[in-house]
Write a structure and sequence with these properties.
This is DUF3106 domain-containing protein. Residues 27-130 are annotated as: Disordered. With 244 residues, the chain is mainly alpha-helical. It folds into three domains: 34-99, no CATH class; 100-132; 137-240. It is built from eleven helices and no strands. The protein has helices at residues 2-38, 40-47, 56-63, 66-74, 76-97, 102-132, 138-144, 148-185, 188-219, 222-231, 233-240. The longest helix has 38 residues, at 148-185. The relative contact order is 0.05.
Length: 244
């Protein structure tokens, strides 16, 4: 009977010890979890992904979290890592969309714009040339009755006028530039000289236009001038206008 009582007491002690050990393990586990919950750094390390793995959506969500931003700004390494990650994502987005550097794109657009202007200017000059050189138009030449010799003579005279007009434009541009410098320097004597030079350039051009008109009258016969005035009056007006 005494042995049986001792056995029951021993079993009760073992049971109490086992329960105490289990409770201690659970308490330690709960204490560890509580410590992690109370430690922001530990919680961040356990829940936050690496900065290198952040997506654009993650970065946008981070930007909307003031507390997270303050933590990152307080850590130089994490702050630099976030900046590098943002730069990597921008480069990836440009590569996927096929976009180039914005500055290079702007330069390319500016170059295309200049080319468009140059092409437009070439087309406009070509139209003026086709309109101005009316004697090279087969229909007009046939209706007016121009001979091949007359077409050649008119073309030569007009080329001389064009050369004189181009030289006059260059002289006038130089005079205008020099006048600006003289005005800035308040050089009255130089300004007087430049005014005379401008007048001479205009006179040379006017003389060239007069020679062109006289030469045209020498080449065309009376009947041809009448036909030209009747069929193409706009050409007569163009003949009287200064060459640009």
């Amino acid at each position: 009977m005494g042995l049986m009582r001792f056995a029951w007491i021993f079993l009760i002690v073992l049971t109490i010890a086992a329960c105490s050990s289990q409770d201690g393990a659970e308490s330690a586990k709960e204490a560890g979890q509580a410590t992690e919950a109370d430690d922001p750094a530990a919680r961040a390390d356990a829940t936050e992904p690496a900065i290198d793995d952040l997506s654009e959506e993650d970065l946008r969500a981070l930007a909307r979290d003031p507390e997270a931003l303050r933590e990152i700004m307080a850590d130089p390494q994490r702050r630099q890592a976030v900046r590098e990650r943002m730069r990597e994502l921008r480069q990836q987005r440009r590569a996927e969309s096929g976009r180039e550097d914005p500055r290079a794109a702007m330069r390319e657009r500016a170059q295309r714009h200049r080319q468009t202007l140059e092409e437009g200017g070439d087309r406009q000059r070509g139209r003026r040339s086709r309109t101005g050189r009316w004697w090279e138009n087969d229909v007009i030449a046939r209706n007016v009755g121009l001979s091949p010799e007359q077409v050649g003579d008119i073309g030569t005279a007009h080329d001389q006028l064009t050369a004189a007009a181009r030289e006059s434009r260059q002289q006038l541009a130089q005079v205008a530039s020099s006048m600006q410098e003289a005005l800035k320097a308040s050089d009255r004597d130089r300004l007087v000289e430049l005014v005379d030079a401008r007048q001479e350039a205009l006179q040379v051009r006017a003389q060239a236009e007069a020679e062109w008109m006289k030469r045209l009258l020498e080449i065309l016969e009376d009947e041809q001038m009448t036909r030209l005035a009747e069929e193409r009056p706009e050409l007569v007006s163009a003949l009287l206008a200064p060459v640009r």
